[in-house]
Q: What sequence folds into this?
Protein backbone atom coordinates (compact mmCIF):
# COMPACT_ATOMS: atom_id res chain seq x y z
CA UNK A 1 0.00 0.00 0.00
CA UNK A 2 1.44 3.40 -0.96
CA UNK A 3 1.91 6.22 1.54
CA UNK A 4 -0.94 8.13 -0.12
CA UNK A 5 -3.27 5.15 0.22
CA UNK A 6 -2.32 4.68 3.86
CA UNK A 7 -3.21 8.29 4.66
CA UNK A 8 -6.50 7.97 2.80
CA UNK A 9 -7.33 4.75 4.59
CA UNK A 10 -6.43 6.20 7.98
CA UNK A 11 -8.70 9.21 7.57
CA UNK A 12 -11.53 7.10 6.14
CA UNK A 13 -11.23 4.62 9.00
CA UNK A 14 -11.28 7.45 11.50
CA UNK A 15 -14.44 8.94 10.02
CA UNK A 16 -16.13 5.55 10.01
CA UNK A 17 -15.20 4.64 13.56
CA UNK A 18 -16.05 8.03 15.02
CA UNK A 19 -19.60 7.84 13.70
CA UNK A 20 -19.45 11.20 11.93
CA UNK A 21 -21.45 11.48 8.70
CA UNK A 22 -22.01 14.32 6.28
CA UNK A 23 -24.43 16.80 7.85
CA UNK A 24 -24.09 15.19 11.28
CA UNK A 25 -23.13 16.90 14.50
CA UNK A 26 -21.85 15.47 17.76
CA UNK A 27 -24.09 17.04 20.35
CA UNK A 28 -22.38 15.85 23.52
CA UNK A 29 -21.47 12.81 25.56
CA UNK A 30 -23.86 10.26 26.99
CA UNK A 31 -24.48 10.03 30.69
CA UNK A 32 -22.73 6.67 30.75
CA UNK A 33 -19.50 8.32 29.61
CA UNK A 34 -19.72 10.74 32.49
CA UNK A 35 -19.08 7.90 34.86
CA UNK A 36 -16.92 5.76 32.54
CA UNK A 37 -13.23 4.92 32.49
CA UNK A 38 -12.26 8.23 30.91
CA UNK A 39 -13.22 9.91 34.15
CA UNK A 40 -10.23 8.22 35.76
CA UNK A 41 -7.72 9.99 33.53
CA UNK A 42 -7.57 13.29 35.43
CA UNK A 43 -4.25 15.06 35.70
CA UNK A 44 -4.74 16.52 39.16
CA UNK A 45 -3.61 14.45 42.13
CA UNK A 46 -3.71 17.29 44.65
CA UNK A 47 -6.08 17.09 47.60
CA UNK A 48 -7.58 20.53 48.04
CA UNK A 49 -9.80 22.23 50.60
CA UNK A 50 -12.97 23.41 48.89
CA UNK A 51 -14.85 24.27 52.07
CA UNK A 52 -15.60 27.82 50.87
CA UNK A 53 -16.67 26.92 47.36
CA UNK A 54 -19.55 25.31 45.50
CA UNK A 55 -17.36 22.22 45.18
CA UNK A 56 -17.62 21.60 48.92
CA UNK A 57 -21.05 19.96 48.50
CA UNK A 58 -21.89 16.50 49.71
CA UNK A 59 -21.89 15.05 46.21
CA UNK A 60 -18.77 13.27 45.01
CA UNK A 61 -19.59 14.54 41.52
CA UNK A 62 -18.48 17.99 42.67
CA UNK A 63 -14.89 16.93 43.38
CA UNK A 64 -12.20 18.49 41.20
CA UNK A 65 -10.62 16.17 38.64
CA UNK A 66 -8.16 18.43 36.81
CA UNK A 67 -7.81 21.88 38.40
CA UNK A 68 -5.73 22.75 41.41
CA UNK A 69 -7.49 24.98 43.94
CA UNK A 70 -5.64 28.01 42.55
CA UNK A 71 -6.73 27.23 39.00
CA UNK A 72 -10.27 26.58 40.17
CA UNK A 73 -10.46 30.01 41.80
CA UNK A 74 -9.24 31.73 38.64
CA UNK A 75 -11.78 29.91 36.44
CA UNK A 76 -14.54 30.54 38.97
CA UNK A 77 -13.82 34.28 38.91
CA UNK A 78 -13.53 34.38 35.11
CA UNK A 79 -16.84 32.64 34.39
CA UNK A 80 -18.58 34.90 36.90
CA UNK A 81 -17.55 37.90 34.80
CA UNK A 82 -18.96 36.22 31.68
CA UNK A 83 -22.27 35.46 33.41
CA UNK A 84 -22.47 37.51 36.63
CA UNK A 85 -25.12 37.27 39.30
CA UNK A 86 -27.75 40.01 39.16
CA UNK A 87 -31.27 40.80 40.28
CA UNK A 88 -32.65 38.19 37.88
CA UNK A 89 -30.81 35.24 39.38
CA UNK A 90 -27.55 33.47 40.20
CA UNK A 91 -24.32 33.78 38.26
CA UNK A 92 -21.92 31.21 36.88
CA UNK A 93 -19.99 30.95 40.14
CA UNK A 94 -22.90 29.84 42.31
CA UNK A 95 -24.22 27.61 39.52
CA UNK A 96 -21.01 25.56 39.63
CA UNK A 97 -19.77 26.31 36.12
CA UNK A 98 -16.12 26.00 37.18
CA UNK A 99 -16.80 22.43 38.33
CA UNK A 100 -18.49 21.67 35.01
CA UNK A 101 -15.44 22.90 33.10
CA UNK A 102 -13.08 20.90 35.30
CA UNK A 103 -15.07 17.73 34.60
CA UNK A 104 -15.32 18.38 30.84
CA UNK A 105 -11.54 18.60 30.57
CA UNK A 106 -11.46 15.01 31.83
CA UNK A 107 -13.91 13.58 29.25
CA UNK A 108 -13.34 12.26 25.71
CA UNK A 109 -13.98 15.84 24.57
CA UNK A 110 -11.18 17.15 26.78
CA UNK A 111 -8.84 14.39 25.69
CA UNK A 112 -9.86 14.94 22.03
CA UNK A 113 -10.06 11.16 21.80
CA UNK A 114 -12.73 11.39 19.09
CA UNK A 115 -10.98 14.05 17.04
CA UNK A 116 -8.61 13.36 14.18
CA UNK A 117 -5.26 14.07 15.86
CA UNK A 118 -2.80 12.89 13.19
CA UNK A 119 -0.77 15.42 11.18
CA UNK A 120 -0.04 17.36 9.17
CA UNK A 121 -0.57 20.17 11.67
CA UNK A 122 -1.06 23.48 9.89
CA UNK A 123 -2.74 26.79 10.51
CA UNK A 124 -6.39 26.26 9.64
CA UNK A 125 -8.65 28.72 7.87
CA UNK A 126 -11.54 30.40 9.64
CA UNK A 127 -13.93 27.72 8.35
CA UNK A 128 -11.63 24.82 9.23
CA UNK A 129 -11.08 25.69 12.85
CA UNK A 130 -8.15 24.55 14.96
CA UNK A 131 -5.76 22.19 13.17
CA UNK A 132 -3.04 21.83 15.82
CA UNK A 133 -1.73 18.95 17.87
CA UNK A 134 -3.00 20.01 21.32
CA UNK A 135 -6.10 18.43 22.84
CA UNK A 136 -8.99 20.57 24.03
CA UNK A 137 -7.86 20.15 27.63
CA UNK A 138 -4.31 21.17 26.74
CA UNK A 139 -5.56 24.25 24.90
CA UNK A 140 -7.65 25.30 27.88
CA UNK A 141 -4.85 24.73 30.39
CA UNK A 142 -2.37 26.66 28.19
CA UNK A 143 -4.81 29.56 28.07
CA UNK A 144 -5.47 29.40 31.79
CA UNK A 145 -1.74 29.46 32.54
CA UNK A 146 -1.33 32.46 30.23
CA UNK A 147 -4.22 34.21 31.97
CA UNK A 148 -2.59 33.77 35.37
CA UNK A 149 0.83 34.97 34.15
CA UNK A 150 -0.62 37.92 32.23
CA UNK A 151 -2.58 39.01 35.29
CA UNK A 152 0.34 38.89 37.69
CA UNK A 153 2.69 40.60 35.21
CA UNK A 154 0.36 43.49 34.38
CA UNK A 155 -1.64 43.84 37.60
CA UNK A 156 0.69 42.40 40.22
CA UNK A 157 -1.95 40.19 41.80
CA UNK A 158 -4.05 37.09 41.29
CA UNK A 159 -7.00 37.24 38.90
CA UNK A 160 -9.64 36.34 41.49
CA UNK A 161 -8.45 39.13 43.82
CA UNK A 162 -8.76 41.93 41.25
CA UNK A 163 -11.81 44.16 40.89
CA UNK A 164 -14.55 43.25 38.45
CA UNK A 165 -13.46 46.10 36.16
CA UNK A 166 -9.87 44.81 36.07
CA UNK A 167 -11.01 41.26 35.41
CA UNK A 168 -13.18 42.48 32.54
CA UNK A 169 -10.25 44.38 31.04
CA UNK A 170 -8.08 41.25 31.11
CA UNK A 171 -10.76 39.09 29.50
CA UNK A 172 -11.24 41.72 26.77
CA UNK A 173 -7.50 41.59 26.08
CA UNK A 174 -7.75 37.82 25.65
CA UNK A 175 -10.85 38.07 23.48
CA UNK A 176 -9.27 40.64 21.15
CA UNK A 177 -6.24 38.65 20.04
CA UNK A 178 -5.29 41.25 17.44
CA UNK A 179 -5.92 44.28 19.61
CA UNK A 180 -3.47 46.76 21.12
CA UNK A 181 -2.80 44.59 24.17
CA UNK A 182 -2.30 41.35 22.27
CA UNK A 183 -1.68 38.37 24.54
CA UNK A 184 0.95 35.93 23.32
CA UNK A 185 0.37 32.19 23.84
CA UNK A 186 2.60 29.65 22.14
CA UNK A 187 0.64 27.38 19.81
CA UNK A 188 -2.79 28.99 20.19
CA UNK A 189 -4.36 32.44 20.12
CA UNK A 190 -5.75 34.11 23.22
CA UNK A 191 -9.10 34.55 21.46
CA UNK A 192 -9.27 30.79 20.93
CA UNK A 193 -8.95 30.28 24.68
CA UNK A 194 -11.53 32.97 25.41
CA UNK A 195 -14.02 31.47 22.96
CA UNK A 196 -13.56 28.07 24.59
CA UNK A 197 -14.02 29.59 28.04
CA UNK A 198 -17.18 31.38 26.91
CA UNK A 199 -18.66 28.27 25.27
CA UNK A 200 -17.94 26.11 28.30
CA UNK A 201 -19.51 28.74 30.55
CA UNK A 202 -22.75 28.64 28.56
CA UNK A 203 -22.72 24.84 28.59
CA UNK A 204 -22.18 24.77 32.34
CA UNK A 205 -25.12 27.10 32.90
CA UNK A 206 -27.66 25.08 30.94
CA UNK A 207 -26.46 21.46 30.85
CA UNK A 208 -27.93 18.80 33.09
CA UNK A 209 -26.66 19.06 36.69
CA UNK A 210 -25.19 15.53 36.47
CA UNK A 211 -22.33 17.10 34.51
CA UNK A 212 -21.30 19.33 37.40
CA UNK A 213 -22.86 22.70 36.56
CA UNK A 214 -26.37 24.19 36.60
CA UNK A 215 -26.52 23.64 40.36
CA UNK A 216 -30.05 23.05 41.66
CA UNK A 217 -31.15 23.51 38.02
CA UNK A 218 -30.80 27.27 38.55
CA UNK A 219 -29.88 27.87 34.91
CA UNK A 220 -32.99 26.08 33.72
CA UNK A 221 -35.15 28.00 36.17
CA UNK A 222 -33.91 31.27 34.66
CA UNK A 223 -35.37 30.16 31.33
CA UNK A 224 -38.37 28.23 32.71
CA UNK A 225 -37.01 25.12 31.05
CA UNK A 226 -38.63 21.90 32.38
CA UNK A 227 -35.58 19.71 31.96
CA UNK A 228 -36.03 16.00 31.31
CA UNK A 229 -39.64 15.02 31.92
CA UNK A 230 -40.58 11.35 31.78
CA UNK A 231 -43.88 12.08 30.07
CA UNK A 232 -46.30 14.85 29.14
CA UNK A 233 -49.33 12.58 28.80
CA UNK A 234 -51.09 13.97 31.86
CA UNK A 235 -50.88 17.60 30.71
CA UNK A 236 -50.68 17.53 26.91
CA UNK A 237 -54.41 18.13 26.44
CA UNK A 238 -54.77 20.81 29.12
CA UNK A 239 -55.88 24.16 27.73
CA UNK A 240 -54.23 26.29 30.41
CA UNK A 241 -50.48 26.88 30.63
CA UNK A 242 -48.83 24.36 32.94
CA UNK A 243 -45.83 25.39 35.03
CA UNK A 244 -43.48 22.45 35.51
CA UNK A 245 -40.61 22.16 37.94
CA UNK A 246 -37.42 21.15 36.10
CA UNK A 247 -36.24 17.54 36.38
CA UNK A 248 -32.66 16.30 36.10
CA UNK A 249 -31.46 13.05 34.57
CA UNK A 250 -30.34 12.01 38.04
CA UNK A 251 -33.96 11.85 39.22
CA UNK A 252 -35.20 9.67 36.36
CA UNK A 253 -35.77 6.04 37.32
A:
Amino acid sequence: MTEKEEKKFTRRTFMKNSGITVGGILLGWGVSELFGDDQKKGTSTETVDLSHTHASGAHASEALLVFTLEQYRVVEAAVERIFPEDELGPGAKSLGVAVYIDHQLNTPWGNSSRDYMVGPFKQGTATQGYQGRQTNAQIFMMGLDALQKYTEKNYGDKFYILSAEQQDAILVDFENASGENKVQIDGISSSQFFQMLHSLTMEGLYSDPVYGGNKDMGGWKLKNYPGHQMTYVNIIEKEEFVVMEPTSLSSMK
Summary: Residues 41-115+125-251 form one domain. The longest helix spans residues 136-155.
